[in-house]
Amino acid sequence: MSAAQLGLIASNFLMWGGFFAVIPLVTVHFSGSVAGGGLGWSAASVGAVLGLRQLTQQGLTVFGGAWADRWGPKPLILLGCALRTLGFAWMGFSDSWAELLAAAVLAGVGGGLFDAPKSAAITQVTPPQHRTRMFSLTSLSGNAGMVMGPLIGAALLGLGFRTAALSAAAVYLLAGAVMAVTLPHLRPQRLAASSLDGLRLAATDTRFRRFTLVLIGYFILSTQINVAVTLKAIALAGNGATGPLYGLSAGLAVLLQYPLLRLVERFVPVRSALVAAVLLVGAALGLMSVAATFPQLLVCVALYSLGTMIVYPTQQTLTARFAPPERVGSYFGFSAISLGVGGAVGSVLGGALVDGGAALGFPALPWLTLALIGVVTALGLRWALRGLPARDGAAA
């Protein structure tokens, strides 16, 4: 494995760890009770800040990929890490809603600059036949960061939110330093006449556009771990259920994602693996309709996690396969539309379905609806991926 690949894996761990060390604490610190050490802001105001940060990041990711095609991914990744460092540090000193919003948006801009370029860099430094494995290792490192980040953040909160925010900022500074040392400047194969040319190409690529739009259905499902699944876990086991819930999901990914992907690589074509994984995610959500106890719910969550840990590397691999070599960043940027739209729709839809099921006296409503979305999405992916050629010896 090259130094660039190792650096990308290590920096991804640091980025996810730094993110989850501070973002969950924003709600705790700013909307927590004054008696408990919080600032007592309304949950809605803090939620608006976090939502605008997400919207900023996903919106800018589309352009971040196109800029990577023009200038190479490294400058974008380094600038993104620097801006996120400043944004997280600023959060630690924010004492008004406007300040917190500005800091969060700055952190979102940073994420929008490094997200797609990071995927483009992985594609450029990894031979096609090893890309699924590399994306799997990168995802594994991110899940490890998701496990470690909240634990470190909770420990640092005892020293004050400012300390936690500054520590998370320092982690992004370190991630940027790792990238500066290990990642070569990957110059574009040819200089685009305009940063938007690649986005136009991706948007007019009929098969890739279908693929991206169909994947919105999957991201509606994947966001339910934070919405409908969390609400059901709390209903079954109280507020303390969230720790085991997220711990199981991230822990399984750390332990199983890489060996599972190696097994899938040997016996299942990438397209078929993606379709099957989306079906598994939908089926796991459907089974939650009959989960009457918290342990039963955790079994469903385990199945759900097995599906999601296959989807990410296969989806990234197929995105790279769609893209012309000189437009990889633009294609990864355009693909962020599915996450942005699906995540936003899923957050609203999940809560609405839970409320609607309760109002109708039909608690299975959200789970059966989500299972149906899983089936429709899997069929849509089979349609969208028809005829996609294998390249450079990669399995189709």
UniProtKB/TrEMBL annotation:
It holds the Pfam family MFS_1. The chain crosses the membrane at residues 12-32, 99-116, 137-159, 165-186, 213-237, 243-261, 268-288, 294-312, 332-354, 360-381. It is a multi-pass membrane protein. Residues 1-392 form the Major facilitator superfamily (MFS) profile domain. InterPro entries: MFS, MFS_dom, MFS_trans_sf, MFS_Transporters. CDD domains: MFS_MdtH_MDR_like. Its main location: membrane. It is found in: Cell membrane. Keywords: Cell membrane, Membrane, Transmembrane, Transmembrane helix, Transport. PANTHER family: MULTIDRUG RESISTANCE PROTEIN MDTH (PTHR23517:SF2), RESISTANCE PROTEIN MDTM, PUTATIVE-RELATED-RELATED (PTHR23517). This is Multidrug resistance protein MdtH. It comes from Deinococcus caeni. The gene is mdtH.
